[in-house]
Amino acid sequence: MNKSEKAGDLAAREITVTREFGAPRELVFAAWTDPVHVSKWWGPKGFTTTTTRMEMRPGGVWELVMHGPDGTDYPSKIVFVEIVKPERVVYDHVLAPLFRSTSIFEDLGPRSRLTVTLRFESAKVCEQAVRQHGALKGLQEMVVRLAEHMGKGI
Amino acid sequence: MVVDSLTVTFAALTDPTRRSILQRLASGPATVNELAGPYRMSQQAVSKHLSYLVRARLVEKRREGRRHFCRLRAAPIRDVADWADRYKAIWEQKLDRLDAYLKELQKKEKP
Fold first, then answer.
1. Can you give the pTM of this predicted structure?
2. Distance between B41 CA and the closest CA of chain A, angstroms
3. Closest CA to B58 of B10, B94, B97, B106
4. Is beta strand A111-121 parallel, antiparallel or unpaired with respect to A12-21?
5. Distance (Å) from the C-alpha of residue B34 to the closest C-alpha of chain A?
6. Edge-to-edge strands of the sheet including B67-72?
7. What is d(CA B73, CA A97) in angstroms, rounded to the nearest whole number?
8. Which of A52, A137, A141, A49 is nearest to A96 (CA)?
9. Percent of chain B with pLDDT over 70
10. Helix or strand or coil: residue B16?
11. pLDDT digits (tens, 9 = 90+) for A43-86
12. What chain B residue is nearest to A7 in terms of C-alpha separation?
């Protein structure tokens, strides 16, 4: 870690992944936003996903369970912040680990590019969690859940 | 273990006063008096927060003459950063799967 990073936002970290697909943007957007499609690819290699609720609108909730290859279930909950068809999906992951994810879909003619950014922002996320849960206890529980997630190697 | 220290780091960061102390220390070491200056709380209360941060290994205290200097330790913050990097790997795998699925979908559309 360099000095400027250290002096910047504490424990804030952004990661970005980009991929070009040999498929038009509309299809990629549909594959992301349709519960039938998304369960086919969501999650790390070897995982399957069950969606119990997916409301594709700002403020809408996506509840899902990722099933690991060893049979372990990882519940996940997402709240959509912004959905602009077929350009952009922004959501908050509201269980540990807390982060905001932004997916940008770019039109490259018959091809397309998807850029996903995850922003882990401990300080802000902590404030949010405390507000949402009205108490520090909720956050402490999330931290414990985070530790459990880490323990399982997710 | 990394998991335990991450838990401690996150727990330490849950408090706004502690976060603001860390922000202050990010610009350089300071004495307990200097740190207590901007807060509407007793030096004792600030000391309590500092003790928490020392236990979380986010801050180290060092004595120079009669004064105690506090300094930010970057290692736990770096651990949080490393942890986030693991998510990059998970997303790369997701996009691999999405790529394969899109190919499958397109095959179905154009038999």
1. 0.61
2. 20
3. B10
4. antiparallel
5. 18
6. B30-31, B67-72, B59-64
7. 23
8. A141
9. 84
10. helix
11. 888 889 999 999 999 999 999 999 988 998 989 999 999 999 99
12. B26
Write b or e for each residue in A67-76: b if 16 or more Cβ atoms lie within 10 A of its Cβ, otherwise e.
ebeeeeebeb
Residues 35-64 of A with CB under 8 A from B: 37, 40-45
- Whose tokens are 């509407």? That residue is B40
What are the tokens at A87? Answer: 């350009």
Contacts of B51-58 spanning 24+ positions with Cβ under 8 A: B52/B12, B52/B15, B52/B18, B53/B12, B53/B18, B53/B21, B53/B22, B55/B8, B56/B8, B56/B9, B56/B11, B56/B12, B57/B5, B57/B8, B58/B9, B58/B12, B58/B22
Q: pLDDT class for B2, splitting at 50, 70, 90?
A: very low
Which of B101, B92, B107 lies closest to A28 in space, CA to CA?
B101
Backbone angles phi, psi at A99, to 5 degrees: -160, 165
